[in-house]
Here is the input.
Amino acid sequence: MGNQIIRQPTGKFAIFCSVTDTIIVLDATKREVVEWFARRAAEAARRDARRNVEHVAAGEPRTAYFQFAMSWEEALAQDRKHQGDAWKEFRDG
Here is the structure.
């Protein structure tokens, strides 16, 4: 399932949706096709970030990150271990 780029006889491009079995973009240039996919990816990333930040703000980081959820102290320890700089700023408090 997904979207497929199809070249039209005119040389322009269409996007076919296999979920609805319909053409959802018609007469697009290469650039327009790329931008269409980029917009969709950006929207999905924003949606995911909003959901995750709400879980973390509500004190539910495991809902967002499952067993990979870290506390502030764990994140600073990893930062230090891997030569990051954030731990230096917060090492005294």
Notes: The chain has a mean pLDDT of 94. The first helix runs from residue 30 to 57.
